[in-house]
């Protein structure tokens, strides 16, 4: 059983809360847990349908995985975001599976998929909430697809670094070349080569496990 | 004003029809046209929001277009299918644009987006219909993305040819190598090389503007 502060989060995030009968509100509350994921992969869409996540702290990466182990990051979720793609078993119309990974230790509310599904099947507002959340992620995925398929790699890498420093409020990016390659669905060698180029241009400084952005304006010219 | 047979199509395809007041049914009927598109591009998401399409005959290709003119086919729509991505201005949560092209002369019912949007804003069933249709296409796009990003080209081309002959009920594919390249987001040279390989393996026969599948089982081994 979750506590009042978490019930308050549910009632804010689930925009259809006012359209629920009391017993359905209780049903959701009784089948929501407050849990923490350690850094690392924890969800494989092919086998799991853990439920709807509401992210309280930390961040998650949602990605595709190929048979030979290649990863494509589709989008990320952070505090306040909702993940419905960790409950694709609820949806009639969604037939693909994604994987989730906690990027840091992350606290979430997790709503049981069967309970949510039961409520959505009789409450159109709850069902519509699910599909609208999915549509948001559709937009995220289309943006990523556009990036991967159409954009030149210097542009993508520059944009990625700029996003990172703005996201973290710091001009240092603590990621290895290999990690960046995974984020950009590229190879480590390609990332290293382009980073060396940026470094030679005086846009960034490279040291072990970190990249310091020294000329943001210069980097923006690429993006 | 559309005729009774078209109203009957609307009432079947729009699964929320029974949940509409009479005046809203009339509003939709009054703002739906029966129209024919000639073969070719007719819709650019960046500028247009023509409305919701219900395909009566023919087929459409929905694709992304890069700044430098490259195309990526996302999915196709055929008789009985509904297209809501030709009305993205209706959606709060969809922020990307696609392009549409009629592959052959195609007849459609076209519902005015402003009228639909007005109805969806006060009728949750109409709104939910939109988002559920969008979710179907989300699945299509994810499938395509998986294909493009992860699959080896021989597999993709074999699968494409098999899909074409099953779709057209004929073992001849009337497409140029350039057209196939566009469908598969590849280059003409790559397509030609792989087709020659398939021909040498005795799976297909090549002649000007057409490809005859002579060994379907053999092709299936690649796909």
TrEMBL record, chains A, B:
Specify the superkingdom.
Bacteria
Single GO term (MF): DNA-binding transcription factor activity
Show the GO cellular component annotation of the record.
Answer: cytosol
Q: Which UniProt keywords apply?
A: DNA-binding, Transcription, Transcription regulation
Q: Does the keyword Secreted apply?
A: no
DNA-binding as UniProt keyword:
yes
HTH crp-type domain spans which residues? 151-217
PANTHER family the record matches: CRP FAMILY TRANSCRIPTIONAL REGULATORY PROTEIN, HTH-TYPE TRANSCRIPTIONAL REGULATOR ARCR
Protein name, as recorded: Helix-turn-helix domain-containing protein
Tell me which species this is from. Alkalibaculum sporogenes
Q: What is the lineage of its organism?
A: Bacteria, Bacillati, Bacillota, Clostridia, Eubacteriales
């Amino acid at each position: 059983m979750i506590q009042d502060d978490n019930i308050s989060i549910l009632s804010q995030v689930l925009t259809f809360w006012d359209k629920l009968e009391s017993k359905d509100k209780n049903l959701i509350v009784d089948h929501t847990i407050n849990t923490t994921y350690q850094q690392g992969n924890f969800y494989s869409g092919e086998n799991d349908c853990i439920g709807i996540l509401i992210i309280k702290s930390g961040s998650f990466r949602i990605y595709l995985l190929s048979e030979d182990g290649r990863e494509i990051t589709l989008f990320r979720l952070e505090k306040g975001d909702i993940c419905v793609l960790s409950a694709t078993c609820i949806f009639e119309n969604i037939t693909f599976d994604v994987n989730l990974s906690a990027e840091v230790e992350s606290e979430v509310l997790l709503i049981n998929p069967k309970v949510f599904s039961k409520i959505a099947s009789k409450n159109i507002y709850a069902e519509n909430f699910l599909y609208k959340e999915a549509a948001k992620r559709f937009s995220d995925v289309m943006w990523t697809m556009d990036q991967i398929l159409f954009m030149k790699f210097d542009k993508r890498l520059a944009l990625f670094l700029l996003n990172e420093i703005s996201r973290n409020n710091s001009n240092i990016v603590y990621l290895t070349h290999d990690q960046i390659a995974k984020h950009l669905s590229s190879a480590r060698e390609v990332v290293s080569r382009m980073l060396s180029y940026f470094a030679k241009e005086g846009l960034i400084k490279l040291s072990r496990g970190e990249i310091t952005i020294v000329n943001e304006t210069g980097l923006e010219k690429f993006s």
